[in-house]
Amino acid sequence: MPHGDSERTSREGRDRGEDAVRICPGVRTTRRVAAVLVNYCTPELVLEALQSLEAELGRGHDLRALVVDNASPDGSGARLRSLLEEPRFSRWVVLLELTENRGFGAGNNAAFRLLFDRAPDETPDALLLMNPDTRLRPGALAALVQLLDEQPGAGAVGPQIVWPDSQPQHSAFRFPSIWSELDGALRIGLVSRLLAPFAVPMPIATARRVCDWVSGSCVLLRRELIESVGAFDEGYFLYFEETDLCRRARAAGWEVWQEPAARVEHLVGASTGLVEGDQSARPRPRWWFESRRRYFLRHHGAGYLWLADVLWLVGFASWRLRRRWQGKPDRDPRGFLGDFARFRFSRIF
């Protein structure tokens, strides 16, 4: 079972002069938590995210934060350097400035390498990944840590993501499949009901549960998960990297959980420019297509990718015709069908 040794944890606590911790059988304690925020041209959002983290200091765990500036061209590095020199942040936040932007996964991996290259008593037990456009609600971190401690097989736990008005967003997911691709493109009520067990977003729930994957916008990862299955695949520039990591974790025997008691506000798209709802003002960026292709090819093979693409193209073309006939608003990314077809047929697989 991939979890820490509770007796060793308790002994280390006594060696540091701390009070002995009573640990129930099969339950470990997460003492050291390192939050990682990857910035790209959003320094003010980073500051607001850190302010939400600041309220969690001194609540039973040793909390530190590492901000990674992903080679922002707007002077974010200098802005963050100035902000984080303030006494309120300098004692618990460190800035890492990269010289090249190689994507979300690579930015987090740079933080992992820095955090893991420490003395054993300074290495974090868990890593809290936060997008700059997320805000912890009170008690969110404690609830995530508690689940990780109570479920020794849990390698990752995500919160209930909410909108600024506190309405819940889909926060627990199933792995993408040919059936979810068909359903998402076709958009026919009867088909959606038949394919509901394959839908990627799981229904919103109020009780903690195991799922396939959770959003990388805010997730608590056990250190041993990264050590056992590896960090993010840097072949994904943005999107699908957390789905890939959770798939590798599940294949290695780890569990992925969602904890609705932990609530985190997410200003969806404020960091990336991709938002839910009406996306017709801009096209879908090329790296989204690249990431989707990489995920299906890596985990299912070329034949499955080909079938998923064909089903999506047929389904989405049908939807576009029905949308015009029914006079429904166009909320899809500008040129989505043509961009998908051009990307798909520009390569063999």
What's the gist of this structure?
This protein has 13 helices and 11 strands.
Which properties best describe this structure?
alpha/beta; two-stranded antiparallel ribbon; 9-stranded mixed beta sheet; globular; single chain; 349 residues; disordered N terminus
What does the model show?
With 349 residues, the protein is an alpha/beta fold. The chain contains 13 helices and eleven strands. It has helices spanning 6-15, 43-54, 76-84, 87-90, 104-116, 140-150, 178-186, 189-194, 223-229, 241-251, 286-300, 302-326, 336-345; strands at 32-39, 62-69, 93-97, 126-130, 134-136, 154-162, 172-173, 209-211, 213-214, 218-222, 255-266. The strands form two sheets. Strands 1, 2, 3, 4, 5, 6, 8, 10 and 11 form a nine-stranded mixed sheet that branches. The chain has a two-stranded antiparallel sheet with strand order 7-9. Helix 7 (178-186) packs parallel to helix 12 (302-326), helix 11 (286-300) packs across helix 12 (302-326) and helix 12 packs antiparallel against helix 13 (336-345). The radius of gyration is 21 Å and the shape is globular.
User: Which sheet architecture does the biggest sheet show?
Assistant: 9 strands, mixed
Spans where pLDDT lies below 50 across 5 or more residues: 1-26, 274-278
Number of helices: 13
User: Looking at the chains present, what oligomeric state does this protein adopt?
Assistant: single chain
Content-based structural category: alpha/beta
Helix content: 40-55%
Rg for CA atoms: 21 Å
| Strand proportion | 15-25%
Per the principal axes of the C-alpha atoms, what is the gross shape? globular
How far from one another are the termini?
38 Å
Number of strands: 11
Average pLDDT reading: 89
Helices and strands, in order, run as HEHEHHEHEEHEEHHEEEHHEHHH
